[in-house]
Specification:
By secondary structure, the protein is mainly β. Helix content is 6%, strand content 55%. The chain has a 24-stranded mixed beta sheet that branches. It starts with a helix and ends with a strand.
Length: 738
């Protein structure tokens, strides 16, 4: 090894050690993607074997949120070697152990759902989903389904808090996920990033961004347009994302900013399949008349101010004006009933038109106060969140007899026209107390007031205005012990809550019955774990968890004796318990051994989780919880040499059920039954040319496996929603000014 290489290696090790020490010990340090102040250093050129570190941990406190003692990780998207041209979630976020992904991209939905620890992954309804700290679902307490998520090419980092560790975000059982978007660099010329991807099934994706800064102004803007014919007939879609951000440094201690997100899509839904249809040909489609669109608009303003050396203020305000509308002929009879021709008109029977509109405003303010206690600097993080939202739902509008995207209503009014209102005020506080130099304890609490209202017309009948108020409080405590500068033991216990709203009692586009006796869910989550980098080239974590969930809402099936057919009903099933272990390891073996050579860029990773989720009370005591596979494992190997890198990943998941009965197969209802286990292989390779150009190739589902992750009793089904077979994506990019 030559002298210059030794010096570079020593410098890199010192910088890494310093960064780890500061991240563990400085309670006011911000996350890498959200620094409060970043010193500008001179340019340093480092030449060394390229390795990939996709998973990281945030500092103990950042922007008024305490992360110490919690199950939390950060995904660095650019380090995952993921297929960003096609947004394959298992490549992008799959290294978070235990994440259960409900794949909907084959049905045209850009936002795959995720869940943890036996919780329902559909549209991420058990998660608190945010973008740059702002909720992006329609209504956190009215309709918490996620229909928009930013394109992966726009994402810098993904922050994931599992379980009830996200007390500062909300009461959700599943925790929180925050998509942290890319930004411009202060006082720098414009940096341009252009990417073009194309691939199987007519995929064509164009992404472009520009960012930079001059004086007190920093800016960033991006546009992404994607369209695809789809791997199944009648599954074409077209979507456009646009994003712009500008930040202004009003003074050395205060900055303000504005962000705008615009999302437009049009989705042709191929419909669900019966078991027999899937077994015969998962690529088939028997629906050509089902469409959905979800235009989304989010305007966000934020302020960061250092009020004193010890006190910082973070304020985020957002305005959402969004919609979702659907025209389909699929809700009557399920996947096994064909779309029919009316013999009197020799045309298809009319479709149904449904619309939803969301208007809401959120303001969230956080204070971060450093104070002295036990002769040490501790941190109080407290805040308030105020939300007011309105949702209008129209259903049962008589639609056209055609097959095109036509939202017009013909020959009559909407059968249902409901107006929902939600008002929510939440107070929260957590105090990071350093008992010793190594040991810290973080008690916390959250108190919420929630009002839900409803009025309008249902089934062409006026319903009286109704209002429901509730107040609930949650407590939590976490602890952390530093075994060294890069090794931590932690544990936490936190309460969780899921209120049932009027919206849950009047579902949108569902074939299931809804029990009128749904109850608010409540429970708690216990975590104990270890994480660290015990030696150079090895990163690992392991967490044991226990989640107790009372009044859990779920789906069960039965036989309608009058009709002689199966029915499904959303109801309060009983109490469930999820217990298991989540583990992650990433190792660069030749770095651990301290050797060099062509294999120095070889690394192996594994994200594994075991989850035993069962009902422990009620009619289905002892049954496996719905959509809760016992094992989820994603193992991969990456190799980087010079300007090239490649990654193989094997994703394996065991079976799960879609109803509390644990039905294996229902002859007359494909919305319930087993979801078989599967194993899927993905491969990617990329190369950098002349520092500014990059080419990549991705092959997903390399072994061409037939599998699915969803059975659904609503759109985009009902029935089985097959996942895509083998697909290929090729891309090129150009970057300037970096």
């Amino acid at each position: 090894m030559n002298c210059s290489y030794r010096l570079v290696c020593v410098a890199m090790m010192l910088v890494s050690m310093a960064g780890l020490t500061q991240a563990q010990g400085d309670s006011t340090h911000a996350t890498p993607s959200r620094p409060d102040s970043v010193p500008k250093l001179g340019t340093v050129t480092v030449t060394a074997p390229r390795t990939v570190r996709a998973i990281d941990v945030p500092p103990p406190v950042s922007r008024g949120i305490v992360y110490a003692g919690k199950t939390v990780q950060i995904v660095h998207v650019d380090s995952t070697s993921a297929n960003t041209g096609r947004d394959i979630s298992r490549d992008i976020i799959g290294r978070i152990p235990g994440v259960n992904i409900a794949e909907t991209e084959a049905a045209g939905f850009p936002s795959n759902g995720i869940g943890f620890r036996g919780l329902n992954p559909t549209q991420s309804i058990e998660m608190n989903v945010r973008q740059d700290g702002v909720n992006i679902a329609g209504d956190l307490y009215g309709y918490n389904e996620t229909y928009y998520s930013p394109p992966s090419e726009l994402i810098d980092d993904i922050l994931v808090l599992r379980g009830a560790s996200a007390l500062a975000y909300g009461p959700q059982f599943g925790g929180a996920i925050d998509y942290i978007l890319k930004q411009g660099t202060p006082n720098s010329p414009p940096a341009v990033d252009l990417r073009q991807s194309a691939g199987s099934f007519g995929l064509f994706d164009t992404f472009g961004s520009v960012g930079g800064g001059t004086g007190p102004v920093t800016y960033f803007a991006a546009v992404d347009h994607r369209n695809e014919q789809g791997w199944r007939p009648n599954s074409d879609y077209d979507q456009t994302d646009a994003y712009a951000r500008v930040d202004y440094a009003a003074s050395p201690s205060t900055s303000i900013g504005l962000e705008y997100t615009r999302f437009r899509d049009r989705i042709h839904m191929a419909g669900g399949l019966t078991d027999a249809e899937f077994d015969a040909d998962p690529q088939s489609s028997y629906r050509s008349r089902n469409w959905l669109a979800a235009p989304w608009n989010i305007l966000e303003g934020h302020l960061t101010s250092r009020l004193s050396d010890r006190l910082r203020l973070y304020v985020t305000s957002s305005l959402m004006l969004s919609q979702r509308y659907l025209v389909w002929r699929n809700e009557d009879g399920g996947a096994q009933v064909a779309d029919t021709i009316d013999p009197a008109t020799d045309a298809f029977v009319p479709r149904e038109v449904e619309r939803e509109r969301f208007y809401n405003f959120t303001n969230e303010a956080r204070l971060q106060l450093d104070h002295s206690l036990f002769h040490r600097v501790n941190t109080l993080a407290a805040g308030v969140r105020v939300f007011t939202g309105n949702m209008e739902r129209q259903e049962g509008g008589p639609g056209s007899t055609g097959s095109d995207f036509n939202m017009n209503v013909y020959g009559g009014p909407f059968e249902t026209d409901l107006h929902f209102g939600t008002t929510n005020v939440a107070l929260f506080a957590e105090n990071l107390l350093h008992i010793t130099d190594r040991w810290s304890v973080t008690p916390g609490m959250r108190v919420e007031w929630l009002r839900s209202t409803i009025d309008g017309v249902r089934g062409l009948v006026d319903i009286p205005a109704q209002q429901k108020d509730r107040v609930f409080g949650l407590a939590g405590i976490g602890t952390e012990y530093l075994l060294g500068p890069a090794s931590t033991l932690y544990a936490n216990a936190t309460q969780a809550y899921r209120p049932i709203t009027y919206d849950a009692l009047t579902p949108f586009g569902s074939t299931s019955r809804i029990s009128p006796d749904l109850k608010d869910g409540h429970g708690y989550d216990l975590d104990i774990g270890w994480r660290g980098t015990p030696v150079r080239g090895l990163t690992a974590s392991v967490t044991a968890f226990y989640l107790w969930y009372d009044n859990r809402e779920g789906l069960y099936s039965g036989i309608d004796t009058a009709a002689g057919s199966t029915f499904t009903e959303e109801a309060t099933i009983g109490t469930s318990v999820a217990q298991g272990v989540e583990a992650y390891v990433a190792v660069t073996p030749f770095a651990v051994a301290g050797t060099e050579g062509p294999l120095a860029g070889l690394s192996v990773f594994d994200a594994a989780a075991y989850d035993d989720s069962h009902y422990v009370s009620g009619a289905f005591d002892g049954k496996q919880v719905e959509l809760a596979p016992a094992w989820i494992n994603r193992i991969g190997v990456s190799y980087a040499f010079g300007p090239t890198s490649t990654t193989f990943q094997l994703a394996t998941q065991t079976h799960s059920f879609t109803d509390a009965n644990n039905t294996v197969r229902a002859p007359d209802d494909a919305g319930i039954g087993v979801i078989p286990g599967y194993s899927v292989v993905d491969w990617s390779i990329d190369a950098t040319i002349a520092r500014r150009y990059r080419v990549w190739l991705g092959i997903n589902n390399l072994t061409n496996v037939w599998y699915f992750t969803q059975r659904t009793t609503e759109y985009p089904g009902p029935g089985i929603i097959p996942s895509p077979t083998r697909s290929l994506t090729f891309g090129v990019s150009f970057a300037s000014g970096h």
